[in-house]
Design brief:
Layout: H1 2-25, H2 30-36, E1 40-50, H3 62-65, H4 69-78, E2 90-102, E3 108-111, H5 113-116, E4 121-125, E5 131-140, E6 145-150, E7 159-160, E8 171-176, E9 184-197, E10 200-208, E11 220-222, E12 227-235, E13 246-250, H6 251-264, E14 270-271, E15 274-278, H7 281-286, E16 295-300, E17 316-320, E18 323-324, H8 331-336, E19 343-350, E20 353-360, E21 362-363, H9 367-374, E22 383-384, E23 389-392, H10 396-402, E24 409-414, H11 419-423, E25 430-434, E26 437-438, H12 442-450, E27 456-464, E28 467-475
Parallel strand pairs: 7-12
Antiparallel strand pairs: 1-2, 1-4, 2-3, 3-6, 4-5, 5-6, 8-9, 8-11, 9-10, 10-13, 11-12, 12-13, 14-21, 15-16, 16-17, 17-18, 17-19, 19-20, 22-23, 23-24, 24-25, 25-26, 25-27, 27-28
Length: about 475
């Protein structure tokens, strides 16, 4: 009996200890939510369209969610609007749902561009259930940020934090309107920082495992102090629902864009004018680097700020304005934050030596202008080389198509198993450099190949399609 009593007392204290540890280890979000949920708003839009069925947020298709609880929720939300008719069978129907948050007490609201893109009318619903028409002040597709304005005063305002102070593993919390459910709260941790996503090179996304679903877009991501550190923007999903990968725009980027949109109606980003690639272990070895890091310059865009500086093809950019550049994806966001016309300091590794360069940053041009600057693919004329490849002199038409005005040779054939094949060189590539030496002609190329040292690794710069690329060429003993 005494033993049972002792065991029971021990069990009680054990559970108490576990409960105490749990309470100490997990944050209590209740106060944070109570203080900050009034700054979060629900955003809906309408668009006149023909009767072709309900419209979902960008990236979500009906076949992906048909027959799921998500699909049923959307269908119920839209079913009232489906009865619309009118001239030409056109109707006003919700085209997207999203979230946002208030950044000034006189009615400025921050959200995602894709939430309001193409909308004819935008409505903002506040925490007190008021629904107000909103004016779209400006949008920026590159950063996926939009600024709205509602006619209201003395509104609660979000506290703006700093994403730079976030640490991987830190707790964060999101408040938004997934599937139209206002002020839903989800929490998780920071999974990674500085993520580069396709077509989003100028935004270093915060990756989290916070449950984000359609309708959360544009809502705030809070730290434990109740400060907004990001704008929830994208999810990785194969079903239309949350799958553990969520991405938020750093608040510094979003607020910079918002300020420019309010003041100028457009966004200006810094531009260096280099095409870069990752430094692999093999390339690091060929450049005499102790470890792989930085952004390798594989092309300098004609007429760009870099072309008017001392930056050279083959330079590895390791620092920009005092900030380290650990990977190639780290560079564009750093450059983008610099205003056009501002001088910047660029630290490069050139032939193993650290060099400090100065460059005056320009303004990032549009996508079409950038595409034209980097050129197109080419068609070749042949002659043989000892690397197991056939090269040719490009003509003027081929140079114009590739965007390479001078120098280089065209690869027309690659022998299976040869050194060129092992390096990854392909037919149609234009070889521009061997090691640190430029290739100006076929005879020049042959001479440089003959002089390559055996038992070493040499970086070969090729122009493939519209993209320059360094490849590591290993020469056997």
């Amino acid at each position: 009996m005494v033993r049972m009593l002792i065991a029971g007392v021990f069990l009680i204290f054990s559970w108490a200890g576990l409960a105490s540890a749990a309470s100490m280890g997990l944050p209590d979000f209740t106060e944070l939510v109570e203080e900050n949920h009034p700054v979060v708003v629900n955003i809906s839009t309408t668009r006149s369209q023909s009767g072709s069925g309900p419209q979902l947020p960008p990236g979500i298709e009906w076949p992906d969610i048909e027959g799921t609880p998500f699909g049923e929720l959307f269908r119920k939300f839209f079913e009232e609007q489906e009865r619309g008719g009118g001239e030409g069978n056109r109707r006003e129907t919700p085209s997207s749902l999203g979230s946002g948050f208030i950044i000034s007490d006189d009615g400025y609201v921050l959200t995602n561009n894709h939430v309001v893109d193409g909308a004819e009318q935008v409505f903002v619903r506040l925490h007190d259930r008021r629904q107000l028409a909103a004016e779209v002040i400006g949008t920026d597709e590159r950063s996926d940020v939009a600024v709205l304005k509602i006619e209201a005063e003395n509104l609660p305002v979000a506290k703006i934090g700093a994403s730079k102070s976030l640490k991987v593993g830190e707790w964060v919390l999101a408040i938004g309107s997934p599937f139209g459910f206002d002020h839903s709260v989800t929490a998780g941790i920071v999974s990674a920082k500085g993520r580069s996503l396709p077509r989003e090179n100028y935004t270093p996304f915060i990756q989290t495992d916070v449950a984000i679903n359609p309708g959360n877009s544009g809502g705030p991501l809070f730290d434990l102090e109740g400060r907004v550190v990001g704008v929830n923007s994208q999810i990785y999903s194969r079903s239309g629902g949350f799958m553990g990968l969520s991405f938020a725009i750093p608040i510094e980027v979003a607020m910079d864009v918002a300020e420019q949109l309010r003041d100028n109606g457009r966004v200006s980003r810094g531009w260096l004018g280099v095409v870069i690639q990752e430094v692999t272990r093999e390339l690091a070895e060929s450049f005499g680097m102790e470890r792989a890091r930085g952004a390798l310059v594989s092309q300098i865009v004609r007429g760009s700020p870099a072309s008017r500086s001392d930056i050279e093809v083959g330079d590895v950019i390791v620092e920009f304005n005092g900030e380290p550049v650990p990977t190639s994806s780290s560079l564009p966001p750093l450059v983008g934050l610099v205003r056009a016309g501002t001088d910047a300091e660029v630290v490069v590794l050139r032939r193993g030596e650290r060099t400090v360069l100065a460059v005056t940053i320009g303004e990032l041009p549009g996508q079409e202008e950038l595409a034209n600057a980097t050129g197109r693919g080419v068609e070749p004329k042949p002659t043989a080389t000892r690397l197991g490849a056939v090269v040719a002199e490009p003509d003027d038409t081929q140079r114009e198509a590739a965007g390479v005005p001078e120098g280089g040779v065209i690869v027309t054939e690659v022998k299976d198993g040869g050194l060129a094949d092992q390096a990854g060189i392909e037919p149609g590539d234009m070889v521009l450099m061997l090691g640190s030496d430029k290739v100006d002609s076929v005879s020049d190329f042959d001479r440089l190949v003959e002089g390559l040292p055996t038992g070493s690794s040499v970086a070969v710069l090729v122009h493939r399609g519209a993209n320059p690329l360094f490849l590591p060429l290993r020469l056997p003993e």
